[in-house]
Structures are given as C-alpha cells and as structure tokens.
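Problem: given the chain below (90 residues), write out its structure.
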Amino acid sequence: MRIEGTKVEKIEESRKDAKAQSVARPTASDDAVVVSARAKKLSTHATESAAAREKRVAELGSAVDAGTYKVDHQKLAERLVDEDLARWGR
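Solution.
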C-alpha cells in the first residue's frame, strides 16, 4: 500500500507553532500545573457523557452495517504519520 500526500511538512509546522505558543514555565519556587493542548483535548473527550458516546457508537455501527461508512484516507494517513512522529519524539 502506498500513501501519498501525507502533508508531513504541515504536521511539522503545526508542532513548531504549538511549541512557540506554549505557556512559560513557572519558576522553581512556584507550584503549578501546565496542561498541554493535547491533554485538554483528551480531557474534553473523557468528560463526554456516556450517553453521547453510546449514541456515536450506535451511529457508526449502523453506518458500517449499512455499508455507508466512508474512511477519510487522507485524515487516516495524517494521523498515522503524526502518531509515528510522536512515538519517535519528533
């Protein structure tokens, strides 16, 4: 399988932009918690109600069963590249 057009450059630019916008670290004498944008996004998903998740899973299951669920190959490829880069610390 060949994946083309993964826009790796855009992913790298996005990471550089995120680093540039990061919050200044507190001084050694301050007690603080710094929460990354990714952690905030994960927190939002974690607080999503169980009913909303069940509804979404049912919708996806119905689409798969009906044969109408379509995979966004571009988004999937970008996500795979992003996860691989994150795993290797890039």
